[in-house]
Amino acid sequence: MRRTAPIDTARLHLRPYRANDLAALHRVWTDPLVRRYLWDDEVITRAAAEAVMRASIACTAQHGFGHWAVCPIGQHDLIGFCGFRFLGDRADVELLYGLAPTHWGRGLATEAARAMLWHGFETVGFTRVLAITEVANTASVAVLQRLGMHVQQRFAARGLASVRYVMTRAAFRRTHAEAPRAAEPRRRADRALGRDAARRHA
Question: What confidence score (pLDDT) does residue 183 get?
Answer without folding.
Answer: 37
